[in-house]
Automatic annotation (TrEMBL), chain A:
The lineage of its organism: Bacteria, Pseudomonadati, Pseudomonadota, Alphaproteobacteria, Rhodobacterales. Residues 4-234 form the ABC transporter domain. NCBIfam families: PRK11650.1. Belongs to the ABC transporter superfamily. CDD domains: ABC_MalK_N. PROSITE patterns: ABC_TRANSPORTER_1, ABC_TRANSPORTER_2. This is ABC transporter ATP-binding protein. Keywords: ATP-binding, Nucleotide-binding, Transport. Coiled coil: none annotated.
Automatic annotation (TrEMBL), chain B:
This is Sugar ABC transporter permease. Residues 69-280 form the ABC transmembrane type-1 domain. The keyword Transmembrane applies. Keywords: Cell membrane, Membrane, Transmembrane, Transmembrane helix, Transport. The chain crosses the membrane at residues 12-37, 69-94, 106-123, 153-176, 208-228, 259-281. It is found in: Cell membrane. PROSITE patterns: ABC_TM1. One of its GO terms (biological process) is transmembrane transport. It comes from Paracoccus aurantiacus. CDD domains: TM_PBP2. The keyword Zinc does not apply.
Automatic annotation (TrEMBL), chain C:
It is a multi-pass membrane protein. It comes from Paracoccus aurantiacus. One of its GO terms (biological process) is transmembrane transport. It is found in: Cell membrane. Keywords: Cell membrane, Membrane, Transmembrane, Transmembrane helix, Transport. It comes from the Bacteria. This is Carbohydrate ABC transporter permease.
Amino acid sequence: MGSITLKNVRKAFGDVEVIPGVDLNIEDGEFVVFVGPSGCGKSTLLRLIAGLEDVTSGSIQIDGKDVTDAGPAKRGLAMVFQSYALYPHMSVRKNIAFPLKMAKMPEAEQEKRVAHAAKILNLDSYLERKPGQLSGGQRQRVAIGRAIVREPAAFLFDEPLSNLDAALRVNMRVEISELHNNLKTTMIYVTHDQVEAMTMADKIVVLRAGNVEQVGSPMELYSRPANKFVAGFIGSPNMNFIEGEGAAKHGAHTIGIRPEHWQLSTTEGAFPGTVGVAEHLGSDTFLHIQLDDGTPIIARAEGERDIHHGDKIFLTPQEGRIYKFSQNGLAA
Amino acid sequence: MATRQTQSLARLMRAPAIILLLIWMIVPLGMTLYYSFLNYNLLNPASTSWAGFFNYKYFYTDPAFWESIWNTLVLVLGVLLITVIGGILIAMLIDKPIFGQGIVRILVISPFFVMPPVAALIWKNMIMHPSYGVFADIAKFFGMSPVDWFAQYPLFSIIVIVAWQWLPFATLILLTSLQSLDGEQMEAAEMDGAPALSRFFYLTLPHMSRAITVVILIQTIFLLGVYAEILVTTNGGPGNASTNLTYLIYRAARLNFDIGGAAAGGIIAVVLANIVAIFLMRAVGKNLD
Amino acid sequence: MARAVSTQTKIGWTIAAWIVALLIFFPILYTVITSFKTENEAISGFNMIPSFTLDSYREVQSQYNYFRPFMNSVVIAVGSTVLALLVAVPAAWAMAFSPTKHTKDILMWMLSTKMMPAVAVLVPIYLIFLRTGLMDTRIGLVIVLMLMNLPIVVWMLYTYFREIPGEILEAARMDGATLQQEIVHVLTPMAVPGIASTLLLNVILAWNESFWTIQLTTTNAAPLSAFIASFSSPQGLFWAKLSAASVMAIAPILIMGWFSQKQLVRGLTFGAVK
């Protein structure tokens, strides 16, 4: 139905190698998120799968069938673009029906599917409007509707939420997750936002400079990052890294401790430091601390804590929550 | 960013336009260059011979040539001065909150759409005619004797006509630029205590500088080729007083049938235009990325 | 800059702006008025109120067969524009949607051909026309004006096409549209407004062209610009008739121009000012 296999896929634009060679297996029905900093090649990888770019070498299979040289229309995939890419001269109804019209589906069936999609996405009352008259969130839904009606082998999302405001982004995140639960269709989702990746994915693919750094479930990446890059990228706020003497004590070149894995004390502990800014959020308190050797650290304390700017503080990593890395950045 | 099939199709789609323009550029220019080295007169085509640089030398030593270069410069600079300064002032005036802005815009832009021969005729007969023109009527009303504009101030008269034609263009482009000026920036400057004149020189003018550059360069290209206005009004005279380079070349080619001489003049015109073109291309090129 | 301004200030600026606008427009207005005067009225001093006679219009048509240059103008302006569009649409399209490393160079080069002064190639074009029998033919002028305006047309279309987001074309491709369907259902509807304004501006430019039209025609193919230029010498003192002919020559284009002011800025500055 929707399994996708990449075998040694390479992509170069002229002399610039964007993707040096990627092997990846995506199971049918999985929600896979490609995540990484901007310029890491995640969008290019998605576009290669979509068929919007030619691979330089390697092969792509969908459901065991080689589609490496097939055009985008032949692959049976649907894509939701960052800019939504709605057809400005067509009504919402026509936008959603467009892929069906291209497939020469009977009118009655087209109408049925559009109505169904509109109901799922709460677009019933907007069907006759033009995209220009819709809000960002509504446009997003139309773009998703246009993808749904085709009943594709897989959905491809290219940073679909990056143009929405923060509140709407959370809503749409939940909606897309729910959509996946209902449709159980393979989804590949590209984002630079690790929160989106963590909350939505069955499987996360972390990319850097075109290379796959690690593939795994969100919790695998959180608790067993393969290297310093993944460790630093997954989790919010970012993991703290300590080098030198403090790391040597644990037999590593660098140790990483997540902000939520510190024990705080005002009297004694492994790392003494001074509190800088304290952000009191009610549910949590985030402390920006400078260790006595100068290393900046962020620590999260649950609930409201009576700690303020300038206070002396001692930090101790929780047992078993110390990530150790060798000199080349790999997990030790 | 596209696939291989679209690339080759794109090449096919570009080809006709490129090939046509290539021919349009190379063939006539090549012929002009070739003729410029010939003694070739249409009245006596049998005695055509190789001339070397004679045509260029002839042009170079002809006082009419230098006069025409001077007239070309005065015409271009005069029109630029009037249109750019006038354009800035009028653009700022139209940009103010006024009633009927749309109609004012339409009235101001209109002269641009008047074809050159008609513009020249209107001014020559209706406005600047020594006995029946509006200017003459005004002069008579004040008890002064009317001026015979085209006899006494031929080049100036042509500058007035051409400036009238191009003032709308400058105004419209400068107005477009003015309207993209950030209102908050202006208000910030007002909060900072900058008086109106300083705001104009430190904010408005720098903001419009790009548009002003474009106006100057594009107008120059067209102004170097002013022709019909001269043909209809003064015929380049009296003497050569209102003959520009374009008109001089036209006269050599069409009235004296001197193909070689006209071709040499044409090559000089190309060199002149290229100097301007280089600057224009830079200004426009920046906008491509 | 939505700022409250006192009505007094607004009235002050309004009066100033209208005075300037009317001064600039005056020569055109006075020509229109004169065209409705009798020949006697026309030369008997300043007078803004004509006797509203249509004689001049009638005489221009009957004496000079005005309809012929008018139709020549239409054929030449529209013909050269349509021909230029036929060549330029695919080219601009390819450059906007499948740009290569050289697209920018090609565009700049096209622009540079526009900078070539017409008079520089007067001699060869004139001789070619004499020898090929193109002299004083509509088709000859159509070809020359088409080539002359081709760079502007390509440029204008290019700037319009570039505003069509590439993602929309990709979306159509993902939605299963073939190239042909992509062009018919998505690109054309989105490109039509840009093509229309390019057409409009180019018709205006071609209509008003007055160098080649004067050089390359005598009577048969002479469009209005050449006709009016020749009209000037013997008819210098028949001002009402001259005005009527002028009004008919500029009216259609003036009206088109009013509708295309916005596109004008963009087309004539090669997208450098928007």
